[in-house]
Amino acid sequence: MQTPYIPLIVTLVVYIAIIYLIGYLASKLTKNLSDYVLGGRRLSALIVSLAAGASDMSGWLLLALPGAVFTSGIQAFWLPIGLSIGAYLNWTFVAKRLRVFTEAANNSLTIPTFLKNRFKSHHSTLGIVTTVVILIFYTVYCAAGFISGALLLSTFFKITYHHALLLTTVAIVIYLIMGGFLALSWIDFFQGSLMFCALIIVPLLTLHHIGARQNLGEAFHHLAASHLHLVKGVGWIYIVSMLGWGLGYCGQPHILVRFMAIAKPGRMFVARNICMVWMIVSLLGACAVGLLGSMQYAHLAKPETIILHLATDLLNPWIVGFLMAAILSAIMSTTSAQLLVNSSALTEDIYHRIKKSASQKELLLVSRIMVVLVSIIAYVIAFNPQTNLLYIVSFAWSGLGASFGPLIILSLYWRRCTQTGAITGLIVGAVTVIVWHTLGREVGGIFKLYELVPAFALSFVSVVVVSLLGKQADESIFTEFEALQRQD
Asked: What pLDDT is attached to residue 385?
C-alpha cells in the first residue's frame, strides 16, 4: 500500500475537525441528563434513521462483510439477508411502541429505567441485572471498536498498533464527552452519509477498472464456482446461523435508544423507510466490494482488508482518504453509541438510585466520568493486538440480543409479562450465550449453531413460563399497559 500520506492526513484532519465542530455545537444544547442521554427527544426522522443505521453497522460493514464475501462468495449473502429482515421487523414492531412507552413510563431515558418503570419495580434486582448484562457485553463491544480503529490507523499510517489504539480511544472519548447523545446523533448522520457514499463509489470505480482491463463476463467466468452458489455446499446450521443474526436487533440498546429520541412517534415509519434504503444499498455495496475484490485478487492474507487493497491499488489518493474517513466513521459511531449506553446505565440506574437527590448538573458530570472509566476498561481489553475481532463482535451482539430481545418484545406486547419473568429471561439469555459459545468452540456439532438462536428461544420461553407460573402483576400495571397500547 503506497498511498501518499498527505491526502490521508489532510482528510483525517478535516474529518476530525468536522466531528469536533458538531460536538461543540451540540454541547451548547446539552443542558441536562435528558439532553445528554437522549437528545431531549427532539430528533427528526432523517437524523434518527441514519443515526440508527450508522450506530448499528460499525466497521464490520466495510471490513468484515466484504472479507466474508471475498472468501465465501455469495454464500455470505445470507448474513445481510438476515440483518435486513431483522432490522425491518425491529423498525416496524418495536420502534414506535418503544418510543411511546418509554416517554409515558416516567420519561424513561434508558432501557433499564424503562424496564423498571414498566414493571413498577421497587427493589434493585432488575436494575442490577440489566446493568450487569449491559456492562459485560457492551464493554467487550467497545473494545472491538477500539481494535477496529487501531487496525485501520496502523495500516494506513504505518504506526504501531498501540499508538493507533490510543489515538482511536482518545478521539472517541473527547467528542462523546463534549456533546453526548445529541452530538452522537448529528455526527452519526454525517458518518452514515460517508459510509453510504463510500459503498457506492468504491464498487463502481472498481467495476470500471475491471471492465477497462478485461471483459466483465470473462472476469465473472473465472471466479471459483463456489463463489456463485447461494446454497450449494452449505448446511442448514450455516444458513440458520447467518439468518439468526437478525434476531439481535430488538435487543441492542444502542439502536433502541435511537427510536426513543425521535420527536414525533408518528414519523417513525418514515425513518424506517429511509433507514432501510440506506441499509440495503450499503449492504449490497459491501457485498459488491467483496465479490469484485475476488475478481481482482486471487488471495489475500487478511480478507477483511479487501476494501483497503482495492482503494489503495486502484483509486485516487484523495478518494482513499475519503474512504479511510468513512471506515473510521463507521467504527466511531457504533463505539461511541455503546459507550454512551454503558455510561447512561451506570449513571441513571446505579448512581441515581444511590443518590436520589443528585442534581442534573451532577448527573451530567457523573455520566461523562463513566464514559472515561468504561473506555479505560475497553482499552485494556483491546490492548492485545492478537485479539480476534469477529469473535468479540459476534459474542457481544448475541449476548445483548438474547438477553434483551425477548424481554423488549414481551414487555411491549404482552401485559402478563412480570418482573420475575424479566429477570429470569435476562439471566437465561446471557448465560446460554456464554455456555453455548464455549461449547461451540470446544465440542462443535449442533453447538456450531450461532449462539444467539438457541439463547433467544430459551430466554423468550423462560420469560413466558416464569411470568405465567409466578405471582400476577398488579392490576394497575395492566391498566397502564392497555392505556399505552391505545396511544400506539
From this structure: 82
For residue 79, count other CB atoms closer than 10 A to its CB: 23
If residue 425 lies in a helix (H) or strand (E), which one and from where to where? helix 419-442
Are the beta carbons of 117 and 108 closer than 8 angstroms? yes
Phi and psi for 261 in degrees, rounded to 5?
-100, -5
Is-contact 54 278, C-beta < 8 A?
Answer: no
CA angle 333, 170, 392 (to 5 degrees): 55
16: exposed, middle or buried (Cβ count in 10 Å: 0-12, 13-18, 19+): middle
**Cβ neighbour number for residue 14 with a 10 Å cutoff:** 12
218-260 pLDDT, tens per residue?
Answer: 666 666 666 777 887 788 999 999 999 999 999 998 889 889 8
Q: How far apart are CA 136 and CA 10, in angstroms?
A: 37
Helix (H) or strand (E) holding 110: none
CA 40 to chain centre: 22
Residue that the C-alpha cell 459503498 belongs to: 199
pLDDT at 202: 87
pLDDT at 151 over 50: yes
DSSP, collapsed to helix, strand or coil, labels residue 444 as coil
pLDDT computed for residue 1 by the predictor: 47
3-state secondary structure 257-273: HHHHCECCHHHHHHHHH
Q: What is the gyration radius of the CA atoms in the chain, in angstroms?
A: 22
Count Cβ atoms below 10 Å from residue 158 Cβ, excluding itself. Answer: 10
| 3 pLDDT higher than 70 | no
The pLDDT tens digits for 291-336 are 988 888 878 877 877 888 888 887 788 878 877 877 777 787 678 7
Taking 60 as the threshold, does the pLDDT of residue 424 lie above it? yes
Q: Is 461 helix (H, G, I), strand (E, B) or coil?
A: helix
**By percentage, how much of the chain surpasses pLDDT 70?**
90
With cell 460493514, the residue in question is 61
- 39 phi-psi bin (left φ>0, alpha ψ -120 to 50, beta other): left
Residue type, 17: A
Name the one residue in this structure whose C-alpha cell is 475484490: 293
Q: Render the burial of 228-262: b for 16+ CB within 10 Å, e for the rest.
A: eeeeeebeeebbebbbbbbbbbbbbbbbbbbbbbb
